[in-house]
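Sequence in, structure out. First:
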Amino acid sequence: MQNLVTVFGGSGFVGTQAVRFLAKAGWNVRVAVRNPNLAYKMRLLGDVGQIDVVQANIRDRASIERALQGAGASLNLAGVLRETGRQGFQAIHAMGAKTVAEVAAAQGVGRVVQMSSLGADADGPSKYARTKAEGEAAVREVRPDAVIVRPSIVFGNGDGFFNRFAAMAQLSPALPLIGGGETRFQPVFVGDVGRALARVVSDAEAAGQTYELGGPGVFTFKALMEMLLAETGQRRLLVPVPWPVARMLGSVADFGSFLLPPPVTADQVESLTVDNVVSGQYPGLRELGVTPTTLEAILPTYLYRYRKGGQYADQDAREMEAGRA
């Protein structure tokens, strides 16, 4: 089916938006996930019968072959931010991406899209960055016409960045500024990423291209923490943490990760030693016809839950002020 696209990892934070925009564009979508029972709501993102959910594990070739059977396009969004058990960087980012591309080539799938990361670098300081780059190279070796998409940190309702630090601020009197908080980011809205992914799946001219997706603003890590605290109405100390100390804390957190998810891993500390902004060497959102959404416009729509008083905090303040008048 030329209008059938298989989306690996399609029930995740980015995947949900990609599936929604693919359905709007008229694609029939097969969402391939490890546990279909947890992704049943995906079918509600399209018309009746337009979206199907199937079982597939990016580490299992046979399940990938079943998921891609009859598909006209493949979109691989599978990825992990930290390693847990068999869900390691090498297995998912490198070997998994390669297997999807190999199966797609063998089955004659017309379009292959691989989501990578803006920090992908074969010589990068983190294992995350190196395996993302390895996955890109493996996909392009098998399918030179594959599309590579590299987003910066992705924000929006349910994200793993702002929600993590906002929750930390509720429990801690201070937030850490890893390496002094000078690392630069170019946060991109999850809705813009989903729209961009749907565009590259549909656009034949995207074949063989690499896209870097960043939002309209560049911020230091410190500036992002200040914005988060201002939005949630919390006063917290911002404590600079030198790189050696951050690495030590990351290693300690890794050691205890079997009990609780660590706030930051040793590998994530290494990722923070380099900026995460677009290079300008590749096309991005605007070339795909997507107007970047500002961070300031979206943060209030979901960080309100961390304010004292929740979504009614501002309303209460206004009413109190009006009462004094």
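Second:
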Amino acid sequence: MDEDIKDWGFALLGPTLYHRTSEALDAYDTHSGRKLWSSALGRKDWYTGKEGVPSDDQTIPPVFAQQDGHTGVLFAYADYTKGSGTEHDRTDVYLRSVDADSGKVSWTVRLPAPKGATVGDLEPAVIGAEDGTAAVRVITRTDDSGSDGGQSATTYAVDLKSRQVTWQKDGFAGGVLDSGVVIGAQLGDDATFQAIDGWHANDDDLALAGLALTDGSPRWKQDGRTGVEVEQVGGGFFVAGSLRDSRTGQPVPSAPDGSFIHCFNDQRSVIVCDTKETARAIDAQSRKVLWTISEDDPSRKKPEVKNAFHGAVYATADADGVVLDARTGKDRGLYDGASTYVINEYAAAGIDMNVYPATE
């Protein structure tokens, strides 16, 4: 890919991979690698010039939503227009839906400007979509002085049928949508954002919070934080330092404690969490521990979990790729070469978009 084209990530739906870049949304057949269609973005410019070309390390895959019997591929983008004469420079944020089958643009809507801030150079993100509503997060600057200005965010909920913004929360940075709750950081005055590790503040004026997708009303809030980083899990769970309940924000007691926790939903009945010290599977309904493999287990190597899907856990143990049974933790077999960064019933795709076919 051209180095001037930014790669924002990809997602699988059925036998098709949808790839989002700064120039277009592209669809590929996972079996042959053939490009099925390309929907050009056609924006004027994607950064303001005040901050230079931003080092934006976000991963922002497209999001799928059912609309009038069709599947829409959703993404958000910013379009910068330099003012002339007495006109101010302007950055507008848009939400777009592209038909998953044809690649035709179904619609594009412009979101209202954030209040008391300007849109920054970091790409906006569709956090997710549920029950006909999408959540979109926009990173903003709290003044126009460039990179020395403070950072903030605005989160929007957009009704996909009426294409109207149903609520807008300035000073709130949504990062996860799950079970009807938009989860993210309530921001103070000195917040800063790093794509690798989330939001930070020198004072304890950040909060981990959940808002109702329906109307933006508070569901729960945990104040007094210097950092907030959230990670999507699904199935009623998210990660913020530990595995947590999306509806309450509370930690799940049966989840492992440890550094660098990542959790995966097998999209059936199991959540698998991995830390440097422990790999553990939890029943998604009862929240009982199904199995644990720790680094000090004398009988087994502690695997590094990469993903989970439909009763299978994909991991590595030293040089081997190993498939574990999600409910028992027993080895089911080895696999060679495949990267399971994203996986479904048709294919697995690595982070560099190398695709491997699914097998029985």
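Remark: DSSP finds no helices and 34 strands in the chain.
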